[in-house]
Amino acid sequence: MFEDFRRLKVLIVGDVMLDAYVWGSVHRISPEAPVPILNVKKRESRLGGAANVALNVQSLGATPVLCAVIGEDASGEAFTQLLEKHQIGTEGIVRSQSRPTTVKERIIGGGQQMLRIDAEHNQVLSAPEQEMLQKAIQPLLPQTDVIIFQDYDKGVLNESLIQWVQQQADQYNIPTTVDPKRRNFLHYRHATLFKPNLKELKEGLLQETIALHQEEYELQPTIREASTVLRQRLQHKVTLITLSEKGVFVDDTQESIFIPAHIREISDVSGAGDTVISIAALCLALQLPSPLMASLANLGGGIVCEYTGVVPIDAVRLLEEATEHLAL
Q1: Staple 201 to which of 90, 196, 213, 278, CB 3.0 to 4.6 Å?
Q2: How many CA atoms are closer than 13 Å to the CA of 27, on its beta-carbon side?
């Protein structure tokens, strides 16, 4: 299975960003205000958002093709340099003079995140920007094995673009996977796999509470019931719901099962969803059974939570844990 990942090409459409980190230590409080003073030891920039999905796909052995819009700014230049450093192509990247490159800067003291500073623009793409992006995507489709919609609600994905990409995918018989956010939640009709987390599911279906099992809250809808409602609205094939420390739930109409999380020392949950959708997309492209796909994605999502900051999955460790824990 891991060897088969190497022959796959994955088209990733969505919001990209720079994940910037300021690492340091805190030993005193500022005399100017009741805030800690960080003594900076190191600064670092990493590929984030949909670009972190590309790193996960690459780490698993497949070839990522990233399609997104960034700014004509210094952060955009730094972003393309990081793509080149990681040997990820830029043929799907569009640069715009009217949008800044999204930057999320995390201030970390003593291994703990103290503050995050976001510089972003989340308005939807203009018509010329969307047209440029579609022109960049079009020639990449014939060689694509699976498409990932990676939505961080920063405006690159909108109903019109989503429908256009899905139509193209249907034409080329390419499976599509979705990691949604609230604004476009119900726009991803006819996708192959839809992967919300529990919070996104509640927001997307306007359900304040959803019980994992019927016996928990007799009058509240269960995950299985919510999954049925979701399929009725979106007409997708497979639902994969991440449940944080409780694991994942997968429903492909043939069967629906809960897969518990493995006990771990959690350091940072940032980027876990990126890992889950990356693994799920590759398994989907290989037409693997849904329980196996969900189990492997569940393992990968847990592994990256043991590291501080947004990091891609270590394929060697994933294979080791899969061999140990899964009946492959």
Answers
A1: 196
A2: 4
Active site includes 274? yes
Q: How far is CA 169 from the centre of its chain?
A: 19
Residue 199, domain member (yes or no): yes
Please tell me the distance from the alpha carbon of residue 259 to that of residue 240, in angstroms, as a whole number. Answer: 11
> Which of 19, 151, 268, 274 is the catalytic position?
274
Count how many domains the chain has: 1
What CATH number should be reported for the domain holding residue 87? 3.40.1190.20
Say what the pLDDT of residue 66 is: 98
Q: Looking at 105-248, list the stretches that DSSP marks H as alpha helix, in order from N- to C-terminal side.
A: 127-137, 159-172, 198-204, 223-234
**Cα-Cα-Cα-Cα dihedral sign, residues 78, 79, 80, 84:** positive
Burial environment of residue 153 by CB neighbours within 10 A (0 to 12, 13 to 18, 19 or more): middle
Containing structural domain, residue 87: 2-17+48-101+121-325
| Bridge partners, residue 241, by sequence | 249
Domain-embedded: residue 275: yes
Region of 155 please: left (phi>0), alpha (psi -120 to 50) or beta: left
Contact 26, 109 (CB under 8 A): yes
The fraction of the chain above a pLDDT of 90, given in percent, is: 77
Specify the pLDDT at position 268: 56
Look at the pTM and tell me if it is higher than 0.85.
yes
CB-based contact 121:91 (threshold 8 Å): no
Mean pLDDT over 164-192 rounds to 97
CA distances from 52 to 146, 225, 230, 316 (A): 17, 32, 27, 18
Q: 251-260 in b/e burial notation, b at 16+ Cβ within 10 A?
A: bbeeebebbe
pLDDT tens per residue across span 202-253: 999 887 667 665 554 444 568 888 999 999 999 999 999 999 888 899 999 8
